[in-house]
Amino acid sequence: MTGLSVLPSVVSLRERACESAICRPRGEWARGIGRQRPTAASRIGYADRVADRTIVVGDVHGCSSELDALYRLCEVGPGDELVFVGDLVAKGPDSAGVLARMRAWNARSVRGNHDAAAVACRLLPEHQVPVHRRALVASLSDQDLALLAGLPLWLRLSRGLVVHAGIVPGLALERQDPYLLMNMRTLDEQGRGSRSAATGQLWGAAYPGPELILFGHHARAGLQLHPFALGLDTGCVYGGRLTACILPERRIVSVPARRAYTATSDARSRR
Question: What is the pLDDT of residues 97-123, one digit of tens each?
């Protein structure tokens, strides 16, 4: 496993990961990673201009060929703003290629749970990295890792808010649990955020607005078109589609996956 010589220091990267990448670590891959909550600076990003169009792309998961096709279909122009909902990496065939395109296109993204896991794994001794994540970690350069470590938990754009997984309605954004921002799918009977994909209420259905939220993470639910919440994870890496929403018109565009790169029956595929 390569070193981190191009980054400021291993210590500073570890601190950053502890503060902003893994906020509620669980399992073998998270051993040694702290439980600190992110600082305000690492939580959020702001838009500094109003683009001609804002194009928000669902979970790419390393599917670079499909991303190229979607980019062409959207006819992205120099006045457009390109934003991702996170989970840029993992499961698909070309995570490094997706990150290279993001840099080349001057795009932005929030941090997904798989992006955070890649950062955490790179900080572990090689023998402690879970087997199913080793190929991904080995494929990412120090520059890739720095990009992932720097992703905010949310982006507030001129046309809406982008998070990876969801929010708990009625709770101020600054008080949201960072873990749930990257991992929740539904609300339980008490209105608390839950990772469950099979039970509970879709959080977007309960969200009253008025700010538009765009998110991903819940491939099992497919495209979610709630009044004030748009879910864009349509399972490309599982053989579904890669989807984008073009604002301000809220036009949905998508391209089919070339093939299924991972099986939905794999327990890890639903994380």
Answer: 999 999 999 999 999 999 999 999 988
Helix (H) or strand (E) holding 84: strand 81-84
Query: How far apart are the C-alpha atoms of 104 and 150, rounded to whole Å?
Result: 17
Torsion, CA 197, CA 68, CA 255, CA 72, rounded to 10: 130
**For tokens 């996956």, what's the residue?**
257
CA-closest candidate to residue 207, choices 165, 167, 149? 167
Give me the residue spans of the domains in the chain. 10-264
Output the pTM of the full model.
0.82
**CA pair distance 247, 184, nearest whole angstrom:** 24
CA distance 154 to 175: 13
pLDDT tens digits for range 40-77:
334 455 555 678 999 999 999 999 999 999 999 999 99
CATH number of 10-264: 3.60.21.10
